[in-house]
## 1
Amino acid sequence: VMAGENSYYYIDRYIKPAMPDNGYVRAYVSESDVLSDYVHIRFICYGGAVVVFAVLTVTMLYALKRFKRSIKTMEKSVAEIGISKQLDKHMEESGHYKEINSLIKANNRMLDRMNEIFDQQEQFSSDVAHELKTPIAVIKAQSQYALNNMELSDEEKKSYEVILKQSQKMQNLITALLTLSRLESGDKVDMQEPIDLTEIVSAVCEAQQYKSTDCRIEFRITNNGNAETCGNINLVTIAVTNLISNAVKFSHDDSEIEIETGEKDRFVFVKVKDYGIGMTEDEMQKVFTRLFKSDSSRNSNGYGLGMPIALKIAKKHGGTIEVESKSGKGSCFILYLSKNK
């Protein structure tokens, strides 16, 4: 209704018949008050909606950030385990998301199982090597005795020579397996022996030339500074021998092998560079994998254990091995040992 220039809304409520003349009550409210309250209520509703939306957005972003952080932590842990190959290293639970924690627990159980299987495999290799060591030694000794002390026909002599040669190869394989097993089991060895890499390199090169009288490889040895440290001299000699014999094995006749010793940062090193058949990118990625033999070395006398053993020895001495190679051009291996004097 209109009252002057003002508009009003009204509502009637009839009085119960008990009242005289059955009157009613009429309530008025001005249109301006209604509109003012409506605007105020609308402002409160819209403002509340904005606040609720903002709170929900912040909460979701925070939850998403924590979720992404948990995923990143998982990804980092998996990458570290993959790089270090330490299957006994577990992923830590995030504590925020039950589903992610369930996934982490399942992954840790899988790692435990894989680690157990690999331990059993390594133990089996070690046990087999130990069991074969004695009979192979007997076969070798008996073959040598027969060749040195018995009158044999040419055919018999040839047979014994084959037996002796193959038993020596088996003995070398067993020695490599036992060395690898000892390194992987973490057996304690004396790591405080003085080591001079220059002397070791000279001795190994001399042994290589003596071992192969028809060796047509020239060793060029360069000493660029101090190459002395402490460690286990027997293990380091094995590592250097593996690197140099590997270079000899894959070098062409009448070629040379460059060997350099020295120090770099906190390491001493041996660098062995050959100009042989080299490796492809794929072969370089697998060269330190146990029992791996490249296609170009299938007919060689190696067992695919030399490089894995050398790498484990390097890591035991706080170092590593770097490799560069190009197919048809040759390879370069650098053995680093920590200067832990």
Note: The mean pLDDT is 84.
## 2
Amino acid sequence: AKAVPGGKDIIVWVCEAAPSVCCSAPPYPRRLRSQKIAVSSPEKCASTIQNVLAPAPTSVLVLINPVGGSGTAQSIYRTEVAPVLEAAQIQTSVTVTSRRGEATDIIRD
């Protein structure tokens, strides 16, 4: 998820694993989709996220680019995104990337 500059919206990016078919070729690639959500309160935003992600996940992997958001990505996550995930009762595993392409490598694994 990321804050939208100049507004009280966040964009939630969801990386879904495509369904696997028995005896098929290697696993299908993951699909990336996004949903823009207006943030009026953490509870309202959490409810919207739960609907977007139905069935709601019990945990998510959060990848933070420390130079994103003009260097404020970690602060944005801590103050705007984390409260929403907590309100949605979604456990998080947070990774702050340290090099270019690391997030892509993590998603591919």
Note: Residues 73-87 form the longest helix (15 residues).
## 3
Amino acid sequence: MLQRGINRATFYYWCKKLEVVSEPISEPFTSFKRLAALAPAVEQQPFLKVTLPNGASVTFYEEISIDHLKRLLAC
């Protein structure tokens, strides 16, 4: 432990702390699960579409407040 710059007390402190926080994994990860996307029942029209100067676009399907839109675009 000292060869990696960690003293023994610090090492065991973190070992004990992480044992309390971590939960055991119930089963090992073996493969991906196949997911199927469902088509929407009714084709929904966009409420608002904003095209940014760099060509990216943001589409809103529900009403959005002007203040919320300003905060999103300020990022």
Note: The mean pLDDT is 79.
## 4
Amino acid sequence: MAEPVLHVLREALTAPTLRTLGESLASGATSADELTRVLLDSRPAFLRLLHRLGVSSLSERQRAANAIAKALREARLPPPGATLPTPPAREALEHAVRLLELHAHDERVAPLWRWCDGAQIKSDPNALRGVPRGVLISALEALGLSPATARLVPEALEHRELRVGFWSKQLCERGTEIALFDYADFGERLLGWTSFVLYPAKSTTNDPATVQRFRSRFGERLVAFEHTSAGWANQPEVDAWMAELRLTHVYIIKYGLPGEPEPEVFARTGATTLVHAVFDARQPHGDVYARISPCVPGRGAVVPHIVRPIDASGADLRGELGIPADATVFGRHGGRETFNIPEARHAVAAVARRRRDIFFLLLNTDPLHDVDEPNVLYLEPTVDLERKAAFIRTCDAMLHARQSGETFGLAIAEFSVANRPVITSSVHHDDGAARFHLDVLGDRGLYYRDSASLIDLLLSFDRNQMKQRDWNAYGAFQPEKVMQTFKRVFLLRQAA
């Protein structure tokens, strides 16, 4: 069954009239045959559901019940009242077009026909583009779409013909590639374009697990370019791929300076190039140029990274790692070599030797020299979001120690949105060029200046008292908000 139709069913089952059915489905107590009978017995609610799906003939009702029963049983639906996943924008548009066809003469959608010809919608959904956004959303909500789903429809109408390529010089577990994945992912889900991911197949820093994560999400739209020591000498290959993919835009995340690659290598077939500077924005190039934060040297618009929500409660890794439930745990993750403030590494060693009830959980981190303590644990990097969330929930706080500071600091943001305090240096920020994390954290951060102040902070940390505070400083970087900024800056070319 098509996902838009299945989403109708999911929404319908949260209605009070079908509450018993939903509870039975969630518990797994209803067989397919029993479900068919319940659907038929729930005549008023079921008939309304069939009407929404366009099934009105009596002769089709039994077949519809059987098909719906099978689909519902396979869907593993959440219990009534649970938050339902919002369909991707393009599927929300398909769903909306179907609903409008079925209810063309319904007075609830009458305001739409003042702005467009309803007869054209099925063959050309673009006919809806002339409808004011508020009018369209209100009509769809009146027909039963959730507000979140209804809001996606105008976005999909606006962007459905865009084909956006996302380029990075590597695919690894670092924050740059996490950000690229999120822009490509949420661009499809929230704005409705089609995303492609482009990367050099022979980069020595490609990480197989990361490549597989991209492949699992984007399938054949993950495109590996041949990359030689001569750089982008193989222009015919690039041109051939660009022509085949028919990309309208190419997004390039990079250090910020010209080169690696020049945007022009993607522009020969007419694509608009979007350059995103991570460290230095003093030499703008490409069709549109932006920075990831106001701290990046240079001028221009800012498009920040997306910070995915992380549930602060849930499973952790304490049992797996043998960490007592009442132990204090400081954790970090990020680049393997970027836990590199000497004073912080010294403080970890000193506290670990002094207090066995304090653990340090270091993910993707170069080992501390001459430190072989049972309460200093190392974990391999992971690109699995659930594993990462469980790691963060294992920790009572993040210990950050990057000598050069952060122009964004995605790992810091991930701890913060999970309501874990971040302990970081107040003096390591590259003379202000990499202090974005300090500006965002503000009074929701805990700060040290040297080894002595960090040791004092770690030894006096009260994990139970810290749980009483709100430590989330990154609420402004939710996917919906950031993708609207991405749209304004990179697509509409407006200042953010």
Note: The CA atoms of residues 107 and 139 lie 10 Å apart.
